[in-house]
Design a protein that fits this description.
With 333 residues, this protein is α/β, with parallel strands linked by helices. The protein folds into 2 domains: 3-142 and 305-330, Rossmann fold (3-Layer(aba) Sandwich), CATH 3.40.50.10950; 151-290, Isocitrate/Isopropylmalate dehydrogenase-like (Rossmann fold), CATH 3.40.50. The protein contains 14 helices and 11 strands. It has a 6-stranded mixed beta sheet, with helices on both faces. The chain has a 5-stranded parallel beta sheet with strand order 3-2-1-4-11, sandwiched between helices. Helix 2 (26-38) links the parallel strand 1 (17-20) and strand 2 (42-46). Helix 4 (77-88) crosses helix 5 and helix 9 (182-200) packs across helix 10 (220-235). The chain is globular and about 65 Å long.
């Protein structure tokens, strides 16, 4: 069974309701039909029912069973307006502005549904920038208790690979924090460990990556990773974590034996923490394209309830996978 098939099976075991607000995107309509057919989640779509169903007929997909909510006509609009107003009034929100936003901005409407417990999570980003997805999520749902910052990760499932967890890795941060401090890197390692345990189900073994292994190079960028490793050991003592490590020393046992013989990871890392967004984003795309890995994300971690982003280059299959992963996250909220 592939990794994503195991996630779908887990999602089916305790079905959740996920909002897909980007109903003007044909990939979303196709994905919704497959999600319903496979029984992965219950789906709420936001928009005009006639337009959505016309699109489904044109694409020849079956959306029987989907719940469609029109922000302009739903009987819950007043409740949602009040909820948005109360949540954001300290920042200057008025009831009139809240009503206008909810009628026009389907992303914010979806997040409000999650806030109101009318949905368990949301997946968007097929035709919106990450900032557009993240902004209302942070403003309305806010960070989870005890979390220092929100970050983004990818699950990479590499075919014919025995490294990591039989080819499955978590990469972070690959989509959000551009140049995290040492303390932020340590926090990303902690939340990534929890995400890996939730979504893969095995012990996270975390490598703090660098262009240096155990002092082989001297540079402020190396110093940041060394300090992040120290902070992680101090603040999150339960983690199996080491750094600074080059990628080969992190995931190849024979190289680890040579370059980092005293590392407790022994070249078996399955969670890779990148020193900055450049490295993380470049790294996951290289693995996705050259190794033909399945890449699921960017998933967001640290928000109080599950909201996940999509790459604007995603396929409908990516959306199905993102919904399955979001549903599994929602099982633990």
């Amino acid at each position: 069974m592939s990794y994503i098939d195991s996630i779908k099976e887990k999602a089916r075991s305790d079905k959740k309701t996920i909002v897909l607000p980007e109903t003007n995107d044909k990939r979303t309509l196709v994905a919704a039909s497959h999600i319903l057919k496979e029984g992965i989640a219950d789906i709420i779509m936001i928009g005009k029912e006639e337009k959505i169903m016309d699109g489904a007929r044109w694409l020849e997909v079956d959306l029987n069973g989907v719940t469609i909510i029109d922000p302009e006509t739903t009987e819950k609009l007043d409740d949602y307006v009040n909820l948005l107003y109360e949540t954001r009034k300290a920042k200057g929100m008025t009831e009139e502005k809240a009503r206008e936003i909810l009628k026009e901005d389907y992303l914010t409407f979806g997040v409000i549904m999650v806030k109101a417990n009318d949905a368990d999570g949301m997946v968007a980003g097929a035709c919106h920038a990450t900032a557009d997805v993240l902004r209302p999520s942070l403003q309305i749902l806010k960070t989870a208790p005890g979390v220092k910052l929100v970050s983004a990760f990818f699950i990479l499932d590499v075919p014919n690979c025995t490294m990591g967890e039989q080819g499955t890795f978590l990469f972070a941060d690959c989509g959000l924090n551009q140049d995290p401090t040492a303390e932020e890197l340590a926090a990303i390692a902690d939340t990534s460990a929890k995400s890996f345990k939730t979504l893969v189900g095995v012990k996270p073994i975390i490598a703090m990556l660098s262009h240096s292994t155990k002092g082989s190079a001297k540079h402020p960028l190396v110093d940041k990773v060394v300090e992040a490793t120290r902070i992680a050991h101090e603040q999150y003592p339960g983690l199996t974590l080491d750094g600074e490590l080059q990628t080969d020393a992190a995931i190849v046992p024979a190289v680890a034996k040579s370059k980092a013989p005293d590392s407790e990871l022994n070249g078996k890392a399955n969670v890779l923490i990148f020193p900055n967004l450049d490295a993380g984003n470049i790294g996951y795309k290289l693995v996705q394209r050259l190794a033909k890995a399945e890449a699921y994300g960017p998933m967001l971690q640290g928000i109080a309830k599950p909201v996940n982003d999509l790459s604007r280059g995603c396929s409908w299959q990516d959306i199905v996978g993102g919904v399955a992963l979001t549903a599994v996250q929602a099982q633990l909220v």
